[in-house]
Amino acid sequence: MQTTWKLRFLGAVSALLLSAVVFFSQNDGLTGQLWKRCAPPADIVLSNYSSDSSLSHPFEVPRLHEPDYPTVVKRDRTLSYSAAVCRGQALYRKILDAFKGIIDEAQRFTENDLRNGWDPESRQGKFSFWDDALKQMGKNVSVGERVPTREETILVDAPLKNPFKSAAGNTVTGRDIETQAHYDLAFIPSRRAMVGIETRSPWFTVKNRLQRHKKPTASADISKLVPSLHRLSDFMWMYWTTVSPNPNNLRYIMRDNVNNEDSVAIMNDIFKKYGSGKPLAWPGLYFTLAQEEGQALLGTPNGYTVAYLLSQRARELGMRVVAVSIFCAHPDQVGNEWFQMLWDLRPV
């Protein structure tokens, strides 16, 4: 009797584990296929790719200026640290394969694709929340230790253009309810930097709306309701090519006020491993992709943009040593920490 009970218990556990594997392999969004072939760290860390494996931060600058609006965390995390590492390793392999020319999955867009799906408005303006980081980047790219001027900074607010703006609303409810997708960005060519300020992708917003109204959410259903140029990485690169005199010299990708719950959770996991265990002010912590923490950050929703941009634009950008800094504007204000990511794409 006892043996039978044990066998039943083991059978139930096995079935549960199998169900979990099937679920994640089918429901992991952008990286579902990559998840299935996640390799151990030793299989992908190339000793000649980056010799900088220390935790020392290359930037020595004062504390970041504090912004004046809060970070809001809306739900519990759905991504564990180990899952983020696994996902990041797979994305890292994809980047290295692209650098070596093994794969080339780039989609080639034109300015017409940008204008057909989006209605971007640009203006010159001051982007001051990253002043200390921008000063250090200025030093790194030989334009002096100063904050970019208003004339150097291009702020872009890009909502969707019709018919995409209203497509999900018409399809779901029969009423003209706009899809709340937009990209709020900054481009600073003199710093070789692009900044994601507030980003709500069409794919994410349309899928959420369809789910809310119990409509089909297969990729084929969503793709009919979004423009061909819909990924943030593609949008940022396409717009960057229109404002930078030398797009291939891109050096920095910044994510301002990270409030995705999974990304924030992974950053908190890493902060807890070092120092006092609390979020840190600028310059924070620094990791290369040869390190587990860097891979975990690449595996977050806010890391996807960097992974896809590098893998799809490897031909233009060439080999890069990729590192990431994480820090907070308000490290002592629980619930209003204002998490930040700064990705450094250092040419080899």
Helical segment tally? 14
Biggest sheet statistics: 8 strands, mixed
- Which range does the strand content fall in? 15-25%
Structural class, by secondary structure, is: alpha+beta
- Say how many strands there are: 8
Overall average pLDDT: 75
**What is the helix fraction of residues, given as a range?**
40-55%
Distance between the termini: 65 Å
Please trace the helix and strand order, writing H or E for each element. Answer: HHHHHEHEHEEHHHEHEHHHEE
| Gross morphology | globular
Regions with little confidence, pLDDT below 50 for 5+ residues: 15-37, 39-73, 170-177
Radius of gyration: 21 Å
Can you walk through the features of this model?
With 348 residues, the chain is of the alpha+beta class. Helix content is 42%, strand content 16%. The protein contains 14 helices and 8 strands. The chain has an 8-stranded mixed sheet with strand order 1-2-3-4-5-8-7-6. Strand 3 (182-188) and strand 4 form a beta hairpin. The termini are far apart.
